[in-house]
Design brief:
37% of the residues lie in helices and 12% in strands. It is α/β, with parallel strands linked by helices. A three-stranded parallel β-sheet has the order 3-4-5, with helices on one face. The longest helix has 19 residues, at 131-149. The termini are far apart.
Length: 171
Amino acid sequence: SCSARKADTGGMVGSANIPRRRRDITLLVPGDILSLIFLACRDVDSEYLQCPRVSWTKGPLKLSWVSRWWRELSLSLTELWTGISLGAGKLVPSDAAVKLLSTFVSRSGPSLPLQFDLHYGHEQARSEVVGASAEAHIRKMRRITEVITRTRRRWEAISLHALTLEALEDF
């Protein structure tokens, strides 16, 4: 039973009440099998591109937080980090999104093809963004394009949406 006492299980782990001794079962799965599972678990959210929708609760990031073994394995799988989908209706990229994009690019290694699906803004929002928020959109989109432009020789596919062409002028 998962509700066993702490003394019997060596302690409980997390809200799922999984005994600590059971969490080591992940060490029994061979790395090559676990690698295939990791790659199959990418949450692809794009109709045309194979870019996983990234969040703090799923995808490669979450896999890298399970254990030291899973972190080492996920960080060694450069294929796991070759596509990213960000934005999805947000108007202004956050600093965290820019950092996340940079993290994916650096973890993808030096030569694998990359896919980007970056959607910041939509036609209906164009009239909503004025003044300081328009300037923030332009400034942050330029940071996004700086990151992906450095990898232009590796682009396999890219989908980039911004509210104004001014935000993409250096692109």
